[in-house]
Predict the 3D structure of the following.
Amino acid sequence: MRPFDQTLIFEKSTHERQASHFTFEKFEPVTLPDHLLRHDDPLLPEVSELELMRHFINMSTKNMGIETGFYPLGSCTMKYNPKINDELATLNGFIDTHPLSNDEDMQGILSIYDDTQKMLSTLTGMDTFSLNPFAGAHGEQTGLMIIKKYHEKQGNSHKNVIIVPDNAHGTNPASAVICGFKVVEIKSNPDGTVNLEALESVLDDSVAGLMLTNPNTAGVFEKDIRLIADKVHEKGGLLYYDGANLNALVGVARPADMGFDVMHINLHKTFSTPHGGGGPGSGPVGVVSSLKQFLPNPQVVFDNKQYKRVYHPDSIGRVGGFIGNTLVYLRAYVYMRSLGKEHLIEIGPRAVLNANYVKTRLKDHFNMPLKDYCMHEFVYDGLKDNSDIKTLDIAKRLLDFGIHAPTIYFPLIYKQAMMIEPTEAESLQTLDTFIEVMEHIVKEAKETPEILKTAPHHGYVKRLDEATAARHPILTYRQFKEKEVSQS
Ligand SMILES: Cc1ncc(COP(=O)(O)O)c(C=O)c1O
């Protein structure tokens, strides 16, 4: 520790030191019964405003984020969240509204709910959306519950199989199992697309549906999608679209036109929201008209006079409290409204162009399992002519240059996978800088490999033992100090 590096000291509390914050009373004070009142002071740190501010500002500089540097995390679409989204989503009228308010007092939020679901329907071709689910995986679970309820209603309870390709995101089979389905995995082609023979061999009357993401997890568009949809529909199954990769297609192609019946969108990816660390998120679920009544309750409708929350008797029920993660879909709403129709359709093509630019410029240095043009993201499978340097080493070295590592070791079908997704938000200059840094790292791999194997060198922490960190996490400063003392 440097002599005056106060930023590393977390225990800042001093008895009876405090910060002040002025509030403007907007509500009548509530008198609570004595048994609900706190009689002891809460055990909170006692710090001055200055120390408090320094603490949080210093903490914020120890992390990497989209606001500090390029963040090409494949499959996660870390696009820029324009500040206007946050400004509007934090207006008092929105953040002070209690979800238990009457419909009359929530007309603003309910109308935004309705407008957002209509915009998503226009972009995807689905009939209606529910914005209630709280994440992509939660959307999957909701969509699969709808598929289940649909088959039950048709008297087809024996349909209990969900087909999932072997390169699917892990949440797909997990969601299917949680909903009580049997998962049948099919092998995909080397480019990650569905192997039609493998699909046909498992299609029978027990099939309730097929889950697919398009473009798939290797960034390749499923060109046989109409044929696949026909085959599944012929057996009475439904098609579920995992919309986590919608960024490549938004405004260009619509999942409903490809034959999908149910889908979710990761709003926190395609429609911009700061995300990471497990949240916050929103996974709206869209359906074709024949599945509309099964959407989660409450559903938001407009009866020509006002917006209302209604409860449909055929619904799968509630999937969470209230009407979803309001402040996240509010950001998505602002994002769509501020870009407008004419600019929303530029997202996909720009994301695809940026990905192909980077992929092509670096193609001589990395193994490329998929040589053709990609969609919004692509995969390298380790350094060419250098098996000694692993993808992990390259990812760690990138941190030294202020660049967040791409997704690594996913999809699982490639041994040294490095999945890069630049997004449409980045400029040509940023992409060129990334390419230069990667070329520099390739040179280091040949000339000074030790630098890569021991990277990062300039980060807040050095290379971590990730297996131990996952199995025995130290989550608080106090635990860290105790460990330090026990080891000394
Ligand atoms: C293809 C795919 N499906 C589903 C998900 C799950 O989304 P969430 O993390 O919001 O639950 C992800 C998340 O990265 C994904 O990439």
